[in-house]
Design brief:
By secondary structure, the chain is mainly alpha-helical. The chain is built from 4 helices and no strands.
Length: about 140
């Protein structure tokens, strides 16, 4: 029983490890230009960017429009509020009917109906604005 156990711990060795390293020095202007190109490329590491650029490999520049993300975030939050109003609408009608006289309940329901019509019109405007926004800013295969 003198056999040694082979430990399988750690990272698997690469078949073709990159062991050759080179140093590049930039002045301030070149460094700023390099950083702007690197940020536009959206690559996860500067070395990958340099390697791809040096060997002429293609890389894509992806620009994220913060306003688009903010718009969809706020639209989602508004839609959640809109759904909450719809969920509470039926409960409100039931409570009005059970706690008020028929005449008073009908008067309150009339006011509620006016507000609902305004919400529907607002919803239509939001949908139209969203379609306009998507047509203007969507980046389909360019």
């Amino acid at each position: 029983m003198t056999e040694k156990k082979l430990s399988k711990a750690g990272r698997n060795p690469k078949t073709d490890p990159a062991v050759f390293r080179y140093t590049v020095r930039f002045n301030a202007e070149e460094h700023n230009r390099f950083l702007s190109l690197y940020e536009q490329a959206g690559v996860y590491a500067k070395s990958v960017f340099i390697k791809a650029h040096f060997f002429g490999q293609e890389f894509r520049v992806l620009k994220t429009d913060k306003t688009l993300i903010d718009y969809y975030t706020k639209l989602s939050a508004f839609h959640a509020q809109f759904r909450a109003i719809g969920n509470n609408y039926n409960q409100t009608v039931k409570e009005l009917k059970s706690h008020f006289s028929e005449k008073k309940a009908m008067a309150l329901l009339y006011k509620l109906e006016k507000q609902t019509v305004e919400l529907v019109e607002l919803s239509r405007q939001i949908i139209q604005l969203t379609h306009d926004f998507e047509e203007r800013w969507s980046q389909k295969s360019v």
